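Technical note accompanying the year-one report. For the benefit of new consortium partners, we illustrate the data format agreed upon in the data management plan: each record pairs a sequence with a structure-token string. No post-processing was applied to the example shown here.
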Amino acid sequence: MLIVFAKRVLKSFLKSIKSILLAGKKLMLEIILKSWKGATIGIMIGLILFLILLDTFINVGIGWYFDVLVSLVLMAFIIFGIGYISKTLFKTVRKFDPRFVTVVIVAFSALSFLPMSFFGKTLMIDLFVCGGLVGLAFSKGIKKSISILLITLVIVFNGYAIVKLFSQGFDNTIPVSEKYCDQKTTGWNFEDPSLDGPFKVLQLTYGSGNDKRRPEYGKNVNLKTSPVDATPFFDQSKGVFNFLRKIYWGFNSKNYPINARVWYPDGNGQYPLILIVHGNHLMTDFSDPGYEYLGKFIASRGYIFVSIDENFLNGNWIHDYEQSEVFTRGWILLKHLEQWKKWNESDGNPSTKKVDMNNIVLAGHSRGGAAAVVAAAINKLERYHGDAKQVFNFNFSIKGVIQIAPNDPYNPQNEVPIVLENMNYLILQGGYDQDMHWFLGNRVYNRMKFSGNDYHFKSALYIYRANHGQFNTSWGRYDFPAPLSWFLNTKPIMKAENQRKIAKLYISAFLDASLKGKSEFIPLLKDYRNGKKYLPKEYYINQFEDSGFKYAADYQEDFDVTTASIKGGTIKGKNLNIWSENSLNFRDDGGSSQANLGVYLGWDSKDLKYKNKTAEYEILLPDSTLQYLKLKDAKNFVFFVCNNKNEMSSVDFSIALISDKDTSKISLNNQYILPPPLKTELTKWPFIFAIAKDKPVERVLQSIEIPLSDFIKANQNFNPVKLKEIKFIFDKTTAGEIFLDKIGFN
């Protein structure tokens, strides 16, 4: 009886489930039949809105009416062409309304061929659903209360989405702690290098004199120049895309113009020459005026400042050269220097005998930063590496390179990057850079080498809440154009005037130290804390090395974890739960290397294996190699370090130097307080458009410099000349992990 009853209950339950499913199926079909018209209209509206948005980027150069015609032709081709194919091929859609199926296929197929398709697809899906709901609301048999609810839901959802899209976003950045701000400095005093100088500033432009787009380089130009033929390196005289570019500009790679705007001091004497070049941006949104704030400022301090026009190498609505033009960007920089040399040596122009051609610095922003490095590298070459029939004769006295948020795409030979030697170098990078969202230019810093007896230095500054575009006033707060800009989280980004003040301060200090021998600014370039009374309140990470650095361990020699870089040096580890040598990676999607090697060290005294044991890492130095370190002349002990744990807010440990039997030990936090992990949230809706979503922290090494006099103060018997051992003792926190590199003396 019990079994029979159970069967009846089960049969009744299954019948009920079947009835519910059938009713649900019937309801869904009814909903679909009533909502397809609205969904169809919604998709059509979304597709047209998206195509209209794309139309704002179309600029052929003939006139607005032609741009609109091109847009309409594209729309017609996409809508009717794909629609016709879809309707013809997909016979099975007869069970559904052909208009509905055709529109769906057309819309989503078209997005496969258009830029920014992620946004287009999101828009289509939104309008598909919302159109369906509105269509359902106005169909027969729907209660008025349900209709009102559906329409209200659509309005509220889309209203909320629009408000969020056009909002700045949210700020979850880490506030700058007072402990970090109040840490000690070395007490150097110098004038604020971001203040205007004593010179009145004059301005001029030079160019072809017949530029059809830029009157400042056309009919209003002050000095005329001759075009240059770049086709031996970058032949862009053929093809549809280049034909369209020529329609817009009136020239191609056979006759690229030498255009620039110049700010210079009103005074007698010769002045150092500074050239800066912009990076990639929409070519019709001109980038070279964006450095006027720097030009006027630097010129007031006694320099000739030139902002180069290379907009014709930038991307447009239909085409981007995708880094293949970087060599040409650099080569054109050197052609500008040739022009300046001619003017300086000839009469009848404002720059006659005014330019100090022995003191030149090249600067660049984004791809322009890569171009500055390329120009510095090929400056000394006799021939073009890609075609030795092309002869060079540059050989300018380039004393330094400045990079602002650069990329590093150019290898003259396969996988062989450019290495700069024996010049000064400065790089600035923002943590909230939403274009170059990883510190790629740090590779150039790491590769740079010094040799000989002349003094050279390199300096890097990482600015937590700086973005990519605010270094250029033409680019501004958004690192992508619309609609991508609508998804960027811009609220945490620092004020534009603060970001540009940092640029002015560091570039000015670099130029004065490099070209005018003002060594009082070296401490600022070495340690940002020495300029904190002039700098906006912010988290900074800086790196500095000069030609006086000698390393006991820089980890470039081999992959044996027990050997140091210095000949005969050995390394030991004790109670470390992590000990490995490898490269430090960026947070880019590919996890590419920062072009340096170091050691990963981790400790955890709560681990049963190491419970209540202190972890140590030591480098033993043989007597035979101490002369190489020049400890007799050494002033400071140096190393580079970063926190390798996102969840660890602070890092502290002890550094011990041991000479004979005397040990001097100093706490890191008594010398330097590292910033916490500088997490970023670069987009508002990562599930739609994400940048560095899974890697919110960039690993950036901080250079630490501790005066040897501080070790002597800690132990009067300590004698650095008789140094035997360097030891890192992890006795300040129960657990942690760091990356350590470039351990030595200055």
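Partners are asked to follow this layout when depositing records. The longest strand covers residues 593-604.
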